[in-house]
Amino acid sequence: MSFSRNIRTFILCCGAVLTLLIAVSACSQGTPEPRSSQPGSAGTQEVEENASAAPEPTPEASPAPTEPVPPAPAPAGPPPASPSVAALSPEQQAALDAELILAAKANDAARSAELISAGADVNAKDSLQDSAFLYAGAEGFNEVLQLTLAAGADVTSTNRYGGTALIPASEHGHTETVRILIAAGVPVNHVNNLGWTAMQEAILLNDGGARQQDVLGQLLAAGADPNIRDPQGRTALENAERLGFTRMAEIIREGTRQAP
Asked: Do residues 123 and 186 share a domain?
């Protein structure tokens, strides 16, 4: 029994010695020093190499392109132009012109404007040789007259008596119409087929009243010649005196004295 205890003690001592030897061996090998992190050191180089070897970060996804916003619609332009005269057949043009003359004779300015816009010719004449322009001027339909002038009325055109629009307008005493026609350039000394000027008709075919006096003054101011004689050889002054239109005769004399 004493022998067994000695063996156990021996074994324990050997184990302790062995354990001690293992520990001493481990200490002699030494613990590896940590790598330096100083610049230029192997540690830094390894970190840099690792960093360079690291995968590049995935770029963020670009936002999806947005649909372009369509521009705001442009303001509506003027309505399409009316059909041109060239687009009308001769029959269509004749019907349009005839309708304009009827509208002018009815003093329908609104309808006249529509027909002119549609291509009706303000100089076209009917069987009586009346055009929209000539009739409006003769009758003093000033709104229609202005429409025809704006559309290119021929101010030298003549009616069935060979007279301009100014001659019947003067005869009827349409003072404002006479003013419009003179301003438009209608010849003031035109002689019609009866041998009368606008001044002669203003005297011979009316009553010599205030409107006729106004017309006579306008004609003289526009350069009308009172010395143009009628078929009987009488001047405007002689006709005014013969008919007893004293004030008209005075206007002619005053105009003659003031003329250069």
From this structure: no
